Structures are given as structure tokens and as C-alpha cells.
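$ run holo --ligand "2'-deoxyguanosine-5'-triphosphate" --emit C-alpha cells
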Amino acid sequence: MSDADPLPAVLAAEGPVLPVVAGLVFRQGRLLISQRRPDDHLGGLWEFPGGKVESGEAPTEGLCRELREELDVEVEVGDLIAEVAHAYPERRVRIQFFRCRLLHGEPMPRHCAAVAWVTPAELDRYPFPAADARLLERLRTEPGLWRDA
Ligand code: DGT
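-- output --
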């Protein structure tokens, strides 16, 4: 499946789809990104911090938990900015990207390899999973997205 596949096409195929949530934390013109650990799926790539939603958990709860575990921060979850479905050869994911506001703590790489605060110009230097391509394009072309929550 390519990045151009619409959400329903990916979801219509047989088999499980992992629900994933990820946070977009903006601060003074920079966006928080984190690097996946080398041994994880898509290891070494950069991403918007988050992870799988657990069963019985609301997406917003899952996102708060993931950011607490991965980065040791407390956030308030805001608007849904984008939603994509993507089929990797080994798994299918449906990712919801939410704007988040940092309430407490400074992001530390607890369960990820590294964190970085990047400007729009710096974003292209970091390799991201294919599923993030359309969101990255919006971040390049919609400066209005880069406001603090
Ligand atoms: P773990 O450590 O196995 O419990 O993993 P979790 O719960 O942190 O979740 P993870 O990272 O394995 O699942 C997220 C999936 O979504 C993974 O296949 C990578 C994919 N993905 C693609 N783009 C992004 C992104 O921007 N952020 C996040 N968090 N995941 C992304």
C-alpha cells in the first residue's frame, strides 16, 4: 500500500489494525520529535511520540500514558490534527495525531533513543516512517500549525 491509500482502503483488508496515538507538541516555533530505539519496529527512525492504545483505554488516555512512559512528561491532549492508516509488510496501523500541551516536565528519552525540538527547516533532516509522510507535508506547508497549544 502506498501513502496515497485512503484510510478506508487500508482498513478494509483482512486482519488486525493496531490503534496508535501520537502527540504534536509545539513550543515557540519548534516541534517535539523522538527517535525509536534501534531494536523496535522501524528502529532508528524519528517520530511523533506515542504508541499503541491499550484495550479499554481511550485514545487520549493512551497518549497521556505513552508520553509519561516515553518522555516523563504530563500533557493535555487537544485537537485531532490528522489520522492515517498505513500497511507495513508486517503490520497495519491506524494513527491519530493529536495536538498536545506540555503541562509538566521537560521531555527526557526514557523509552526512546533520543528527543529533539525541531524548526520547520530542520524537519527534513530527520528520517520518519512512511506513515507520517502526509502529515510532514502539511507541517512543511501550513505554518499555522506551528502555534503553541
Ligand atoms: P511497545 O514498546 O512495543 O509497547 O510499543 P508502543 O506501544 O510504544 O507502540 P509502537 O511504537 O510499537 O507502535 C507504534 C506503531 O506506529 C509502530 O509500528 C510505528 C508506527 N508509527 C508510524 N509513525 C508513527 C509516529 O509518528 N509516532 C508513533 N508513535 N508511531 C508511529
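-- notes --
Residues 7-143 form a domain with the Nucleoside Triphosphate Pyrophosphohydrolase fold (CATH 3.90.79.10).
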